[in-house]
Amino acid sequence: xxxxxxxxxxxxxxxxxxxxxxxxxxxxxxxxxxxxxxxxxxxxxxxxxxxxxxxxxxxxxxxxxxxxxxxxxxxxxxxxxxxxxxxxxxxxxxxxxxxxxxxxxxxxxxxxxxxxxxxxxxxxxxxxxxxxx
Amino acid sequence: xxxxxxxxxxxxxxxxxxxxxxxxxxxxxxxxxxxxxxxxxxxxxxxxxxxxxxxxxxxxxxxxxxxxxxxxxxxxxxxxxxxxxxxxxxxxxxxxxxxxxxxxxxxxxxxxxxxxxxxxxxxxxxxxxxxxxxxxxxxxxxxxxxxxxxxxxxxxxxxxxxxxxxxxxxxxxxxxxxxxxxxxxxxxxxxxxxxxxxxxxxxxxxxxxxxxxxxxxxxxxxxxxxxxxxxxxxxxxxxxxxxxxxxxxxxxxxxxxxxxxxxxxxxxxxxxxxxxxxxxxxxxxxxxxxxxxxxxxxxxxxxxxxxxxxxxxxxxxxxxxxxxxxxxxxxxxxxxxxxxxxxxxxxxxxxxxxxxxxxxxxxxxxxxxxxxxxxxxxxxxxxxxxxxxxxxxxxxxxxxxxxxxxxxxxxxxxxxxxxxxxxxxxxxxxxxxxxxxxxxxxxxxxxxxxxxxxxxxxxxxxxxxxxxxxxxxxxxxxxxxxxxxxxxxxxxxxxxxxxxxxxxxxxxxxxxxxxxxxxxxxxxxxxxxxxxxxxxxxxxxxxxxxxxxxxxxxxxxxxxxxxxxxxxxxxxxxxxxxxxxxxxxxxxxxxxxxxxxxxxxxxxxxxxxxxxxxxxxxxxxxxxxxxxxxxxxxxxxxxxxxxxxxxxxxxxxxxxxxxxxxxxxxxxxxxxxxxxxxxxxxxxxxxxxxxxxxxxxxxxxxxxxxxxxxxxxxxxxxxxxxxxxxxxxxxxxxxxxxxxxxxxxxxxxxxxxxxxxxxxxxxxxxxxxxxxxxxxxxxxxxxxxxxxxxxxxxxxxxxxxxxxxx
Lengths: 133, 806
Hints:
The complex is a heterodimer of chains A (133) and B (806). Chain A is an alpha+beta fold. Chain A folds into two domains: 1-33; 35-121, CATH 2.40.50.140. Helices cover 26% and strands 32% of the residues of chain A. Chain A has helices at 3-32, 39-42; strands at 34-37, 50-57, 63-65, 68-74, 83-87, 100-108, 111-114, 120-121. Chain A has a five-stranded mixed β-barrel. The model of chain A is unreliable at 125-133 (pLDDT under 50). Chain B is of the alpha+beta class. In chain B, strands 3, 4, 5, 6, 7 and 8 form a six-stranded antiparallel β-sheet that branches. In chain B, strands 2-11-10-9 form a four-stranded antiparallel β-sheet, covered by helices on one side. Chain B has helices spanning 2-25, 31-60, 67-72, 79-84, 90-111, 119-140, 167-182, 184-195, 202-232, 243-268, 272-295, 310-330, 347-369, 371-379, 387-407, 418-442, 449-480, 484-494, 496-520, 622-639, 647-661, 666-690, 706-723, 727-730, 738-758, 764-789; strands at residues 383-384, 523-529, 534-537, 540-551, 555-566, 569-574, 577-581, 599-602, 604-606, 611-619, 695-703. Residues 730-735 and 790-800 of chain B have low confidence and may be disordered. Chain B has four domains: 1-57 and 90-145; 167-372, no CATH class; 525-704, no CATH class; 733-806, no CATH class. The two termini of chain B are 57 Å apart. At the A-B interface, α1, β1, β6 and β8 of A face α13, α14, β1, α15 and β8 of B. β1 of chain A pairs antiparallel with β1 of chain B, so a sheet runs across the interface.
């Protein structure tokens, strides 16, 4: 086989593998992802589906609930009715009322039940423009 | 002072513009203009240094008329953190960016002064264009002026978040920034090389060190961030695939690919388009990292708030990408490879595979990081990918990288014969086999196939690297007759790049072993215990011995003493705790205010080479808070002087009433309140010691995780070895002309081949062919050098130039 042809075959083989891998990547990423929602959208969400919720913890609403905690969240801009949340697991240091959190979980009976170890509280103060943060 | 700072910043902006303009005006060889441009860059650096000094002095002297200082520092902030508070702000971090850029540009132009005459003007203009962009941003974009003032100046500042008051958090941002910024230098020189069509290895040789410095800084920044997360954040992990973490990892990975593939261009004149594309990608990703942190586009744990500078940086990225792509496409003819890959079994093809793996890794991370935007684009809903998805793709790629890290150094350039391959692969393969057998026989590593594969490949790679170093030293010993340690030292100091590189490889493999072991075989338990209760974690009995408490002016701490027993014997104790910080700037607040402020976890950690014992704690403070509320209510009743309150209360109430009328009594009143509160706090905190409240613990047994940090440090040491100037350079024997540089490079190649032959990596016939070819090329270069110096050509009959022995 002449080297020119050999190189071409190699190139086509390599490109096909790359394309196959890319398709697998795209396909799995759509099926593995969790939908991101605001608390106000979750008030009417389908029970049982997993969502990634981003919201602001209502000040003064955090309570101990057995081994976990219960609190209310509202949308990031602070509007909408509060959504009750329960969470069982380690709570990050910066977590408290008024902070923004990201939590994965599902809605059960009007309450957002967070999966353990998925609670993320945003690092406060760094680069924020608001004075109160 | 703020107005002086503003003036200096504005001056810096115009100096950068002037430098760029002068450099461009000197692009056709007007040396005085280029020299002047270089001096402008020095001035740019001096001006920004002055700006940074003004800000730091303001921080150190608590000058709260600076908006920046008032919002990120306070009187009580420890001095060390005052100096580091600058870059915890948006404005300060932009100033840091510009300042580091000015230093990098100054260093790059100083090193290349009088050289690369065609490329330097364009590189200067590129670097100063970026410099003008960032200084202009601070001057003209809203809300990011580091010299903004507050009038009247507050008495005290907001303070620095206690979570950020950690040594590694203070060093981490400047390291990352230095990494991001230093990649500007190779990028700028690449742009210059492309524009002037001087696309040989010259620009690479001039900026290789900067790329390596950038890579090392970025790596150190990532490592410090991981360390901070592990010891300070209380969740026990070091990497979360968070967008901002990914943003810093991506330029590091592509930078790694770049550092490898430029070697191929230097040695073999190949991969030129690839290298140009890689450095453009690295620089764009570094800008993207700077952008992501400030944009609020993606949901991240690093919520830096939506800020105003995001769109501008995005604009710069667009300009860089479009401009560079157009440039590369228009220069495709000049970028054609001088040679082709001779054989798949050669070092250059392994370099290519390693490059593809690194780029694939980056592509996966890029896709995952930006998936929320991609999914919104295609499906209309934002959806995100979590850590398991990232692990699924990055794990096999990382494992393959380890394998090729092992294979690469064993192969010679150009081609490898079967005989020599058998010779060099024998030992590493045997060790890999033994590692596999030992793991199956002695551990349950087979339970995690990926980790198992990684350990086996690591055994292969580490043996291969060790054998390389050993054989090199042995070959040198045969050549020179030195003792073995002297031969080893001589070998490393004569070939710093090669052996520094090998050391980095050892470090990265060790680091990946640490990551694989700790992520696959970690035991992790969350339990709630009362004092005296025990729990079993991975064969260890952990007992909550007793609660502890500590009261200091800035915080109240509740902690625990945990006893760790193994086989009935006390091995060690762990002392995790949690601190509740009083919000700063609140004089005479309630006791409850301690629990409204930040809380930080202090991890109980006993690190060891075999495993780390790690504990964090969330104390049950319900009872404490009840007592706090009662005390605050009592205090309130007291100062309102309701009937039946004790005499001391009535006195305090009278004092406070008097203070309201007469401000000079205020300090005394506050001091009295503090004293009363301190007593109450003391009582309440001590009650915690006896009320047997339950506490929630996270207990982790993390095998081999220490090796992650050790591996990182080894890799850094390797980078330092590779960066250390060689003896010739230090002596001042500067390579004067480009032809001299070419000659030097060719001699190095000949020496490398001799070493490979002596170390058994090249068979006799391959070596004979290669050596003849290299010497022929060297003669051509010598001819060119001679012709350049005098009209007399060099005798073509002389085919064996004398190579200085190394």
